[in-house]
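Recap from last week: sequence in, structure out.
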Amino acid sequence: MNPTYDFTGQVALVTGAASGMGLATARAFAQAGAAVALADLDQKAAERAAQELTAAGHQAIGIGCDVADEDQAAAMVARTVEAFGRLDMAFNNAGIQVPPTDAADETAANFDRVNAVNLRGIWTCQKHELRQMRIQGSGAIVNCSSLGGLVGLPERAAYHASKHGVIGLTKSAAVEYAPKGIRVNAVCPGVIETPMVAGMLEGQAEIMKQQPIGRLGTAEEIAAAALWLCSPAASFVVGVALPVDGGFTTH
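Predicted structure tokens:
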């Protein structure tokens, strides 16, 4: 059983919120009493997910946002604050995969695309969330890195570069903003059973052999980690890159 938190009166923003880890985290925030802004590249899917939460009695809005576009990221934060009056917590989860590629054959287009979303996208969101939280003098941000931010694997150079970069952004912002009452941390999911990962696992049974826990993770397990990092229970936790990976990175 996961711990329960009381986020009544607080506001959470989740990117990549229409499915997978983002949707699970948005649901968890809502169930803990927070008003939630669900942002996703697929605006209609974000709005459907928000309607699911409002139908269950929660406060939620859906927002279309390409996180790689700074103007859209700024508008996303502004819309959240306009709707709910403040921003207390953010889970910057939006990310993409690119096909496994030999490092010598990686295309510039692949490298630019994965870094535009996974690294620049975290930067744009974090930047504008921090601007709002700086005004308030409080807040908690969780950036989604990956086990790929902690280790290297064959044919994953561009993706892992983006996820290592997320940890650098997180640590630097954490040191800068901790004195201002704002905590910034990262979560590093392992192999999680989500739509995005399903394609990656095809033909990669070897990955499963490297799971000490013997199974895939669930989106709800990542949500539990994100909520803990945003909660008062983690009030002295600053600048960490928390592996939630079933032991994968202990190798």
